[in-house]
Amino acid sequence: MSAEADVDVLRREGRIVVVGASLAGLRAAETLRAKGFTGSLTMIGDEPYEPYDRPPLSKQVLLGREEAGDTALPRRRDIDAEWILGVAAEGLDRDTKRVRLANGDTVPYDRLLITTGTRARRWFVPEQAALDGVFVLRTRDDAARLYRKLAAGPSRVLVIGAGFAGSEVASACRERGLEVTVAELGPAPLVGALGGVIGAVAARLQRSHGVDLRCGVSVTALEGDRAGRLRRAHLSDGSAIDVGVAVTALGAIRNTEWLDGSGLAAGPRWGIACDAGCRAFDANGIVTDDIYAAGDVARSPHPLFDYEFLALEHWGNAVEQAEIAAHNMICAGPDRRPHLWLPMFWSAQFGVNIKSVGVPTLGDQLVIAQGTLAEERFVAVYGYHGRVIAAASFDGAKWLGFYQEQIENAAPFPPEYRVVDGRTEKPQPVDPEFPDPHLPTHGATVRLTGHSPSEQRVEFVPRRA
Amino acid sequence: MTLGTLSAQISDYANRANPYPLYAELRKHPVTREDDGSYLVSTYYEVRNLANDPRLSNDTRNRAPEARRPDPGEEAGLPPSFIFTDPPVHDRLRGAANRPFGPPHSPRFLYGLRGDLARVVTDLLDAFEGKDEVDIVDDFAYPLPVTAICKVLGVPREDEPRFHGWADALAAGIDPQPGYSEEQVATARQGLNVYLSDLIEASRRRPRPGILSALAPETGPGGGMTPADLVATAALLLIAGHETTVNLIANTTLTLLRHPDILRRFQNEPDLAVPLIEEVLRYEPPVQFVPWTTALDDIDVAGTTIPKGAPVWLMLAAANRDPQRFEDPDRFDPDRKDNQHLGFYTGIHYCFGAPLARMEALIALPQLFRRIKNPRLLEDPPPYRTNAVLRGPRHLPVAIEGLAP
C-alpha cells in the first residue's frame, strides 16, 4: 500500500492517542479535527481536570483576581475525544503500539503524541519538602493551595529561586502587601534567561518594590516545628530567616520517566528529542514515524540557531508545535511542515511587562537599542557572532516584532541605524553576563555499546540522583 | 505645499467618494516614491511592519527642513500632542493620559459610561419621531461621539458650539491639503487653547467627573504633565473624539444600506454588531492614512530604500484591502475570519480611543437599525467631508417610514 493510501486510512479511521491533557495536547487535538481527522482520539492526563491555562496561576490567581478553577482553556472547536483523566501514563510499548496506564489498562494507538510537559522541581530534601508551608507552583491545585496560604497573611514568604516563576510569585506577594525574601544562587534575578546586565535591572526592580532580595546564596535547610509546620530557613551565608511559607521555584523537570525502557530518546533533563517535524527520535537518534512530541517536553533542532536542539517552556511554542505535530501526524511526507517558531516569552512582574524573542542565552554581546536600563524601560538586543540573535524588552513589547524580523533575517550586530528612543548614536556592545555554561550538570546519561558499526547502539545509563 | 502625483489625486475631493481604485493603483508597488520626495506605503505587511519599526518617527521635527509642515500647536507655543511624539516623551504622556481612562488603573471607567451613552442614543432616536427623512450624520452620528468625548474629558456639553469649529479646523490641519488657511488653523488653535486652559484651571479648583480633572497637573497622578502638555493632550483627545467615531457610525450606516442582505441579517441578529464593526474598520476605515511619519534612517522596504528624513505616508485603507492579506478584499463580509485590520493603526500609536469608539458603535448601531423602519439611502454617494485623512460623509440623508418604540 502506498504511503498516501496509508495516510488516507489513518485520517478516516486511525487511532490517535495524546498523552498529556494540557495546552499542547488540547491544541493538537483541535487541529487534528480541524484538518479532517475522523478516527478515534483519546486524551490521557494525570490530573483530574480538563486542560487549563497556566500563565494566570502565578499572577491573577495568586492575587485573588481569578479562581484557580476558572482557568480552563477556551475551546476552539469540539474535539469529540475520549478523555482519560486523573490517570497517569506509566509505560510505552513501541512493538505492540500501546500506552500502559497506571490503572493497568492499555491503550492502543496508530499515532501517539506526547505532550506530558514538565513538573516543578521539588525541594531536594523530602522531609523538608513535606513541611506544611513549603510549596511549588505548577498546577492548578498548587496555585489554589498557595493562594489560600497567602490569603491567610503569613508574616513572611520565602521564594527560593529568582527565575521568572519565582520573580512572579515575589511580585504577587508584594502586591498583596506581604513581606518577601527571595534567595537566588546566581548574581541576580532572571540571570539564567536574560544575563547579568538585565538581571541587575530586575534586582533593582525587586528591591524598589520592597523585596528582601539575597543573591549569591542558597537555602541549605528548611526547618519545621513539631507539628510539621515550616518555621525557619537556613541560608548558605550562615543567616536564618523566620518564615511560614516557602515557595520553591527551582525550575522544571520534564515528565519522561514513564518512557523509561521504551527506547525513545527521552530524559528528564533534555525531554524528548525530535526532528523539526515533531517526530520523536529513538535512543539511537533514528526518527520514529508514529510517535510525535510537542510542548515543554519536546526538544527539536532550529535552523536559525545553528540547528541546536531547543526545548522551550513557552506558551506560544506549545501552541505552535502542537499544531505542527497534529498536521504532520496525518500527512504524507512531502506535506509535512517544520516547526520553525521563533522562541518568545513574556512575564509580568512588579508592574513591568517583560518580553523576549529569540534565544538570549546564545548571546555573546548586548546593546541597549532603545530606552535606558536606568528607567527600567528599554529594548536590549543580543548579538551572536556578529548577528542579531535575540531581543528582550522591559515595557517595550510592541517593538519586538521588528527585532524578530532582524533575528529571522540574521541582521548584522550591533545595529547601526537610528531608532526612536535611541539614546546614543552608536550603542556600545557589552558582555550580557550569562553564567558560565560549563558548570557541572547531571553528567552523561547515555553510552555507546557494541564494537562494529552494524552493532553499535545507544544505551541509557541510570540517572545518578 | 504641492503634493506628488498620486497623493494629489488622493487629496482631490473628486476622488473622496471612492478612493479605492487609487489605492489599488498604489498597491501595484508596495512603496511609491512621489516627485515631492515623500513615500507612500500601501501594502498590508509593509504598512504593519513600518508602523512597528523603531526607525520610523511620528515627530515631524525629524523631517528634512524642506519637507516640514507648519504645526499650529508649535506656533502657539504648545508642545506636540502625544500622537506627534516618539518615546520616551510619547510613552510618558500617553501613559499619564491612560491612567484615568483605561486598564490597568481604571478598568471600569468606560464601562461606567455605557448607561449614559445608551440614553443619549435613545434620545437622539426618539427625536426621529414623526420625520420621514433624517440626516444620519447631523442627527445621530455626530452628536453621540461629541457627547461621549465631553463626558470622558469632563468638558461641558453645552460648550460644543464654541469648540465645534475649532475642532473642525484643527482636524483639517492633519490633511495634506487642508480646506483651511494656515491663519484659520492658527486662530482655531489659539481659541481652543484658551478655552481648554481655562477649563483645566477651573477643574483643578473644583474637580468634576472626567479625565481632565484626574490629569490636572498639580493634583492628579499625571503629575508628569506640564500645564502645556495637558492642554495639548486635551486638545488631541477632544478633536480625535469629535472627528473619527462620527465617520465610523456614518460609514457603517452607509455600508449597511448598500448591502441590504447584511442589513436584514443584522436586524435579526444584533450580535453581528461586533464583527460587523470590525469589518467596517477594515473596509471603510475612518482614518484612511497617516501622512505624518518620517524615516529616521534609511529603511529598506520591499526593495525600495526610503531615505533618512523622508516623509512617509502609511496608507491604512489601501493596506486593509490588500489581496495578499485579505481574501476577496473588496467584498464587505462581516463573517471574515482573522480580521486583523489596520483601521485603528498598530504599534505604540494604536488608537488611544479605540475601546471608546467600539463601545459607542456597539451601543449606537443595533439600536439605530432596530428602530428605524425601512431605511433608504436618498443620495449615493452622499456628500463627503473635505478631509481626505478623516474620510466620511458630511451628510447622510436617509428616508425612513417611522420609528419602532
UniProtKB/TrEMBL annotation, chain B:
Pfam families: p450. SUPFAM superfamilies: Cytochrome P450. Signal peptide: none annotated. InterPro entries: Cyt_P450, Cyt_P450_B, Cyt_P450_sf. It comes from the Bacteria. Residues 51-80 are annotated as: Disordered. Residues 56-72 have a biased composition (Basic and acidic residues). PANTHER family: CYTOCHROME P450 YJIB-RELATED, P450, PUTATIVE (EUROFUNG)-RELATED. Belongs to the cytochrome P450 family. This is Cytochrome P450.
